[in-house]
Specification:
about 0% strand; single chain; two-stranded antiparallel sheet; 14 helices; about 350 residues; mainly alpha; ABC transporter involved in vitamin B12 uptake, BtuC
């Protein structure tokens, strides 16, 4: 039961925050009016508040799981859709859709974003596999530089064809425009996460290396590219609806791994729950700090994520992949004491 304690706490916390978020906003919505059958209150609740909550939950769980998979496949705790050029590639795909199909629907833009994100992620992983010296910090730096190159191309095309204003909605993540009929694409996160659960053990094996995978009969390249495709599609579906949101896939899996280890199947549920809590809490902060105005969630997550990223960077460089352990109480009998370790190697 002890291993499920964290999952239960996260579940209860997410439930409480979810209920609170439904009643936070510019327009007042209260439970009494809803129970009394006030149709205006129900309209706001069903058209805006509930879709926003569902989009937040899908974004938090999806981006966190995407980061967890990417870190395992790349064998690097600092790799994520942000530092792996996946988000930048999805933005380029959206711009291409606006250029070549200006009258395209949200689903049409999503197809371009999917294709671009998949190709960009594949290129990044192919490139880092060619690097002979894969330092723990060098790999994400290469991804950041590659993402900046893609971002530069995107900015050039946007200025060249006067599409800057049209693209701006996808450059900064926010949930203020999430309404019924404009967010359903993000539901693709659910089947993709189910696939992640099904192939979790395969991702763990591939994360051990090519030779280890072959010895266990797992096709290394097939599982690698399947995992990266899942990551790219989750990221693209979020970017199309919400826009660019950094740090979720980087911070959340690292925080959970510090307490529960690196095995995907054992941490996937907690990673998804904590990711949803993190995004939901940041969104609620953005709604109340300067009410009745609203801060973009990218700004709130960017501030908190930067602080957490520096802390994680210092922790990982000092302790490697050691997990945080909560010491148990020492037995009364001295002869029964066992040697204690500061951290367990995962």
């Amino acid at each position: 039961m002890k291993k499920w304690t964290m999952t239960a706490v996260l579940s209860v916390t997410l439930l409480v925050l979810s209920v609170l978020s439904l009643f936070i906003g510019v327009v007042s919505v209260d439970a009494a009016s809803l129970l009394a059958g006030d149709w205006k209150q129900w309209e706001i609740f069903l058209v805006s508040r509930l879709p926003r909550l569902l989009a937040i939950l899908c974004t938090g769980t999806g981006m966190s799981v995407a980061g967890l998979i990417m870190q395992q496949l790349c064998m690097n705790k600092f790799v994520s859709p942000t530092t792996g050029a996946t988000i930048s590639s999805a933005q380029l795909g959206i711009l291409l859709a606006l250029l070549f199909m200006p009258n395209s629907t949200l689903w049409g833009r999503a197809v371009f974003a999917f294709a671009s994100a998949v190709v960009g992620t594949w290129i990044f992983v192919w490139f880092i596999q060619k690097i002979s010296f894969q330092d723990v910090v060098m790999v994400p730096l290469v991804g950041i530089m590659f993402g900046n190159i893609i971002g530069g191309v995107t900015s050039y095309l946007a200025y060249r064809y006067e599409m800057t204003q049209a693209l701006s909605s996808w450059l900064v993540g926010h949930f203020s425009m999430v309404m019924k009929g404009r967010y359903e694409i993000v539901y693709l996160v659910v089947p993709l996460m189910i696939l992640a659960v099904v192939f979790a053990n395969h991702f763990n094996i591939v994360g051990m290396g090519k030779d280890f995978s072959r010895n266990l009969g797992v096709h290394y390249h097939v599982v690698l590219f399947a995992g990266l495709t899942i990551v790219a599609m989750i990221t693209a579906s979020v970017v199309v609806v919400v826009g660019s949101i950094s740090y979720i896939g980087l911070i959340v899996p690292n925080v959970v791994a510090m307490f529960k280890g690196d095995r995907i199947k054992g941490t996937l549920a907690d990673t998804a729950l904590f990711g949803a809590i993190f995004v939901l809490a940041c969104d609620m902060i953005g709604r109340v700090v300067i009410a009745p105005y609203e801060l973009p969630i990218e700004l709130v997550i960017g501030i908190l994520g930067s602080i957490l990223f520096v802390m994680l960077l210092l922790y990982r460089l000092k302790n490697g992949r050691k997990a945080v352990r909560i010491k148990a109480a020492e037995p009364a009998c001295c002869s029964c004491r066992m040697p204690e370790l500061e951290g367990g190697e995962v």
